[in-house]
Amino acid sequence: MRKIDITGNDIFNYEALEDAWAKSKISVLDAMPGSGKTTAITRYLKDHELNHVLFVSPFKSEVEDELPKRKLNGLNYAYPTSGKGGKVTQLNNLIRFGDKSTGNRLHRITCTHSAFTRLTSEIFDQLGHYTLIIDETLDVITQLDELRKYSDHILMNSGTVDSEKRYQFSNVSWFESVHNSDKDVFNETGDGFKDIMFRLCQMASMNQLYRYSEGNWFRMLPIELITKAKRVIVMTHGFENSFMHCWLKLHDIEHSYIDNSKLGLVSEVDLKRKLGTNLQFIEPPRTIQALADGRRGYESLSVAHWKVLQKAGKISDLSKALNNIVKEKMSADKTNIFWTCPKAFRTEVEANAYKLKGKIVLESPFEVADTEFNDVSELDHQKGIEHSSWLPCNIKARNDFRHITNCLYAFSLNPPPAILNLLEATSGLKKSEIEATFKLNNLLQFIFRGSIRENKSMNLCIIPHETRALLDNFLRVP
């Protein structure tokens, strides 16, 4: 239950953290946006002045500005920077030796998901000194779409796949030898000799490269990244049945949940009620429902269904129907809406829907998460403070669109089938629940970029009925 002191500040009960750690050193703080979870944890770090802390965030601005200069101001948190040796080498040194710029070599560190997930096994034991705070779930597994049968042939002639589908080189020492030589050159000149195969070789050497079937490869993080830490807090929402939850189950790693009420967070029931009040649902007209319903074997507005519509020459009709929703039902200016569909069809939609071709002025340059696992096919490389109204729906991003009061969701985003099958087979969790969590978490992350993040009203139109049903079910409260 939330408590406030006479100055208006939240009062948190940190016994909730100790109770969770007593059950398992890996604890999950699962709470909705606006619950106060980040405030609670940063306040805990300030109040207790812990020395060995590694705070991992998806965003570079959070790592280099918000955390060290505001939320954890005065505690001398350091972060790795670009330059000689690279960020990962600097992060390794900070973890080993602390911040040498301070007299007592404080071990208070912030870093991005990208830097953290590239730590190598030689540093894992050092994590045993650290309280590890992970803001948002790590992207623990990703499909390697660029690997097909040609790459498969080369890799399989250089290594083997074990019973767990993990790939290993036949000669495990050659990469380390070549890489060490390359690092020597880099440290001397600032330039190395990494070619297009380096990333794959590095994954294999770190036991992160998996082969599901011929031409079907993916990367999975080593579980030691968190099991080696002294204790862990994962701050997120929707952890149950997420990929990271499956990852823990796959490795038989126990975790506990922090009691949100005892900690003093805003209750999820109150937040859901507030969200339900602020969302003004716009129902798709019958014309668009007929197009979106698809046909047997195709989920409404999945990538596969979009391809069917394109082949049938119906993208133009769908686009015009979407345009009409924005114009007639939302009464929205093209500079006051953000929307999504598969990136491959974005240009065709915009050509037939002028209301979806707007440019939005942001308060600061658009930022996506700094992660090794970004889906490059969905990234939108736009710089500066002006951005298109289209946004990818599966990329972690900040609430840069919090002043926008209209949202259109025309995409049924599904996890890659190979990953889904693997996680079901290895985690013991149901495929349907993993898939539903994936879809709902991506939807919530997307809509919370808009004005509802500021507790303001927002028009929302979700075209795929399966995705809308997930949100309706989520919003139900006793």
The second-level CATH architecture of the largest domain is: 3-Layer(aba) Sandwich
**Global morphology:** globular
Largest sheet: 6 strands, parallel
Distance linking N and C termini: 17 Å
Q: How many individual helices? A: 19
CATH class designation of the largest domain: Alpha Beta
Q: How many domains is the backbone divided into?
A: 3
Strand content: 15-25%
Structural class: alpha/beta
Rg calc = 23 Å
**Which strand order does the major sheet show?**
5-4-6-12-3-13
How many strands in all? 19
Characterise this structure:
Helix 10 packs across helix 17, helix 13 runs antiparallel to helix 15 and helix 15 crosses helix 16. The longest helix has 17 residues. Strands 5-4-6-12-3-13 form a six-stranded parallel beta sheet, with helices on both faces. A four-stranded parallel beta sheet has the order 14-19-18-15. The chain has a three-stranded antiparallel beta sheet with strand order 7-11-10. Strand 1 and strand 2 form a beta hairpin. The chain has three domains: 182 residues, P-loop containing nucleotide triphosphate hydrolases (Rossmann fold); 79 residues, no CATH class; 206 residues, Rossmann fold (3-Layer(aba) Sandwich), CATH 3.40.50. About 1% of the residues have low confidence. The chain has 19 helices and 19 strands. 40% of the residues lie in helices and 15% in strands. It is an alpha/beta fold and 478 residues long. The radius of gyration is 23 Å and the shape is globular.
